[in-house]
Design a protein that fits this description.
The protein is an alpha+beta fold and 655 residues long. It contains 18 helices and 16 strands. Helix 11 runs parallel beside helix 14. The radius of gyration is 45 Å and the shape is elongated.
């Protein structure tokens, strides 16, 4: 164990903070043989430790239909031949509270099941063939030993060994998956056990990070010395080691260049390789190295929904819980590194954290004698949940059962809701980004997204999970710290706005169709009426015009050109009247064509009129030969024709 973990320096003296405190008390005359120094994180003993991490994932194509991708992922995991994942058919009988326990249904399983509402039971405890598809659970073979090499800001090194007792993968039909990783301290005789509060703070801060949040400045850079990760890595393990089924003796030293290259070259948020190997064969975007080398072809791709800090639950038992100072509780709840000072200003914490983070229904503090404080205290910060109990509060197996099964189930539901809402919000952004494209595709994607949101609301959005008063209070407080209600309202409003935008596009398309129909009518109706009128022999006939004029082609050309010129002029006026506001370039071109046709036919009428003017009416012709006419008295034509046959046009009846 490192010197900082024992609460003493390497030579056996007090820690610097404790030494400074004693020195000041002696300076002001408060020194006494029986004086009690404030407990430090290095001197607060830890008798039991357990931590649960939640890794929420979403499908990379969040705007699509997740049902097919989820089904394909489930089938790929089930089809593994000798793989490390197996389907959990009875979740109530698969949880071990302690390593020596055998997985079986017991009285704790019964208590866990009846603790929740029936609609919660359907989500948390799907049973074999009775599963309705909403929740599918897989378990990774274990146990897995996990080693951590850490260093603090003063470059002091620490080595810890943990055991991954349970790694379950929950896959939900809405395109969200949550990996639950349950960590215990290693068995006695391992490299190092977590026996002090500082060690717990250091481990819970480092183990939950899936990539380094930043890198320090290498002061030796540019001096010719090789790049050294120990000079750059802060708040992240220098090396992670895994040893278990499918992960035999693997080491993952932190390489800052690899993380930087993932962002620089691929524009992807990095995902540490040891996490990728733990979840293989899942394909997770941004995994360093070979992304899920064991992933079958066609496997769906998953993405992170959080930043580098995974949501975490920590359980502690300590005989010194009553001695913890305010800054210890704050650092526990905020998952910060150990220190003898508050991580934030006291005024800020008094207005925020101190008012809402603590749940003390079963915490009996004794200010006169902190060592006699007893009970269980909860600290909730949204992404962090801490349950700290004194050794004499409750039987260890009972409170461990509550933490690993009941509180873990509540945490799973809350982080599922958080991940699902973030996934829906991201999918809405993708749909909105492509909303200006094809309307049919936009309508289909929006319909699928609305159906997915409705499924989430009906199946996974819960206002409470149990009738137990403590469960209702913890769930409501945890939900407030996560900001789930505000996030739900935001996504709901976004969904309504997106649906309204789609409706407006559909109405606009219908209006455009009606407008185009009217425009086509405006174009064709005057021309059709004109053609019909010109084709009738009633209006224009030889009864109204001289024979020579009616027989002239130029005259008919003048009438036709004038009629069509007027028809296109009328079409242009009607078309212009139907335009909604400012006209587009296409509509302006149509107006120009109508105007050109009207002017063209008008010019044609003028040309035909000029040709008509050159045509003179024919003069009346007098009879040139009156000889040979025979005057025949009326009624005497037959006798005349009997005497001398004559052409009929030579016979003129006498009056």
């Amino acid at each position: 164990m490192g010197a900082h973990d024992t609460g003493q320096q390497a030579g056996g003296g007090l820690t610097p903070a404790a030494a400074r405190h004693r020195w000041w008390r002696r300076r002001i005359g408060l020194s006494a043989p029986s004086e009690t120094l404030p407990a430090t994180g290095a001197t607060i003993r830890i008798s039991a430790y357990k931590q649960i991490l939640f890794l929420p994932l979403r499908l990379a194509d969040g705007a699509g239909n997740p049902a097919k991708a989820v089904t394909r992922q489930i089938r790929l995991l089930e089809a593994q031949d000798g793989g490390v994942w197996s389907r959990v058919t009875d979740p109530l009988a698969a949880v071990r509270l302690r390593p020596q326990d055998s997985p079986a249904f017991d009285r704790f399983s019964y208590q866990e099941f009846v603790y929740f509402h029936s609609f919660i039971q359907k989500v948390l405890y799907p049973r074999g063939g009775e599963q309705d598809g909403r929740t599918t659970i897989f378990e990774r073979k274990g146990p897995i030993r996990l080693g951590l090499d850490l260093q603090d800001d003063k470059k002091r090194s620490y080595t810890y060994t943990l055991r991954i007792e349970r790694l379950w993968l929950y896959i939900f039909d809405i395109g969200v998956a949550v990996a639950m990783v349950e960590l215990h301290e290693a068995a006695p005789g391992a490299w190092q056990t977590l026996t002090s509060l500082d060690a717990v703070l250091r481990v819970q801060n480092a183990i939950r990070r899936v990539y380094p949040p930043f890198f320090g400045v290498d002061k030796l850079a540019g001096t010719g010395q090789p790049r050294d990760a120990s000079r750059e890595v802060l708040e992240y393990p220098l090396c992670v080691r895994l040893d278990g089924p499918g992960l035999e003796n693997r080491a993952y030293p932190t390489d800052p260049a690899a993380f930087e290259a993932m962002v620089r070259d691929k524009d992807r948020t990095p995902f540490a390789r040891h996490w990728g190997d733990l979840l293989a064969p899942l394909r997770i975007a941004g995994t360093l190295g070979d992304t899920a080398p064991d992933a079958p072809a066609g496997a769906p791709e998953w993405e992170q929904t959080m930043d580098e800090r995974l949501p975490s639950m920590t359980f502690l038992m300590s005989p010194d819980a009553g001695k913890m100072q305010h800054h210890h509780w704050v650092r526990l709840g905020c998952m910060d590194e150990p220190s003898d000072f508050l991580p934030y200003s006291a005024a800020f914490l008094a207005e925020t954290f101190d008012k809402s983070a603590f749940y003390d229904r079963h915490w009996h503090a004794n200010s006169d004698d902190p060592a006699r404080s007893w009970g269980t205290r909860f600290v909730l910060s949204g992404f962090g949940f801490v349950c700290c109990a004194t050794d004499n509060a409750f039987p260890e197996k009972l409170i461990t059962h509550h933490f690993s099964r009941i509180y873990a189930g509540m945490g799973l539901l809350l982080h599922l809701q958080h991940a699902a809402l973030l996934s829906l919000s991201s999918a809405l952004s993708d749909v909105a980004e492509k909303g200006g494209g094809d309307l049919e595709e936009h309508q289909q994607r929006m319909k699928a997204l609305q159906q997915r949101f409705n499924t989430f609301v009906q199946r996974y959005w819960f206002t409470n999970v149990s009738n137990q008063m403590q469960a209702r209070e913890l769930y409501d407080q945890w939900k407030r710290e996560l900001g789930l209600d505000a996030l739900f309202r935001e996504v709901n409003e976004q969904m309504k706005d997106a649906a309204a935008f789609l409706d407006s596009r559909l109405q606009m398309r219908q209006s455009d169709a009606a407008l185009r129909l009217n425009q086509m009518a405006a174009l064709g109706l005057p021309v059709a009426l004109t053609s019909g009128l010109l084709g009738m022999n009633v209006v224009i006939s030889d009864k109204f015009f001289p024979d020579w004029l009616f027989a002239s082609r130029s005259f008919h050309a003048v009438l036709a050109c004038l009629a069509f010129s007027g028809a296109f002029a009328l079409s242009r006026r009607l078309y212009r009247a139907l335009l909604p506001g400012e006209s587009t370039s296409t509509e302006r071109r149509m107006l120009c064509w109508l105007n050109a046709l009207s002017l063209g036919f008008g010019a044609g009428a003028l040309i035909a009129l000029g040709l008509l003017a050159t045509e003179a009416p024919p003069a009346a012709k007098a009879p040139s030969d009156l000889s040979g006419l025979v005057l025949v008295p009326a009624g005497d034509i037959a006798p005349v024709l009997q005497k001398e046959p004559l052409p009929l046009h030579r016979l003129v009846p006498a009056k």
